[in-house]
Amino acid sequence: MSKLTIYEYPKCGTCRKAVKTLKELGNELEQRHIVEAPPTVEELKVLIKNSGQELKKFFNTSGDLYRSMGLKDKLSSMTEQEQLELLASHGMLIKRPIVTDGRKVTIGFKEDVYKDVWG
Length: 119
Hints:
The protein is an alpha+beta fold. The chain has one domain (about 5-119): Glutaredoxin. It is about 40% helix and about 15% strand. The protein has helices at about 15-25, 40-50, 65-70, 70-75, 80-90, 110-119; strands spanning about 5-10, 30-35, 100, 105. It has a four-stranded mixed beta sheet, with helices on both faces. The longest helix has 12 residues, at about 15-25. It is globular, with a radius of gyration of 14 Å. It comes from Paenibacillus montaniterrae. This is Arsenate reductase family protein. InterPro entries: Arsenate_reductase-like, Thioredoxin-like_sf, Tscrpt_reg_Spx/MgsR. Pfam families: ArsC.
C-alpha cells in the first residue's frame, strides 16, 4: 500500500471520484487543497519531470480563470519560469487532480489509468 499525495479541489466532482477510486484501490492519501495549498514552483518542476508531460498539460484549459486571463494566447510568449509562477500562485489554473507517489505522476482522472498506475 502506497501513500499518495493528491492535489485536488474538494468541490470538484472529478476530484471526489478520483479520491474515492484511489481509496477503493487501497491507497492512503495526503489530500492537498489545490487552491489553498497549491504546489510551489519547485514542486511543480518535480511533478512535471516525473509525469513525462509538457508543462502546458498542467494548465486547466477548460477553467474560467484560464479563459478570463486570456492564457490561450499568452502562454506561448511566456517563459517556463513565468508559467510555473502563474500555476503556483493560482491553484485554479492547474489541471486537477494531480496524484503522485514521489516518482510517478498522473494528471486528471481516468479510472482505467488509475487502476493501472495506482491499483
